[in-house]
Amino acid sequence: MTKKIILPLVLKPNAGFPLICIGGHGDGGYLVDKRIINSDLLSLGISGDWRFEKQWLNNNPRAKIGTFDGSIGGLFFLGNYFNLYFE
What we know:
Blueprint: E1 19-22, E2 30-33, E3 41-44, H1 51-59, E4 65-68, H2 74-85
């Protein structure tokens, strides 16, 4: 069961520009300025959660995306690649 928490409005982001939520709920999801969604992406520390990068690519199919994480090896990468793209 998912529990919904209502936070005070003072915590609502109000940056004066349009925001979009990209990635998973919780860790891995980020608020991004909609005006930069047409840019390329350099993503550091992805670990095994690629939802942010996948949604970025869904919003901008022409994007070049570079991903780096020093804590994973080749076998981890291949296993997650097949799980992510061949679900």
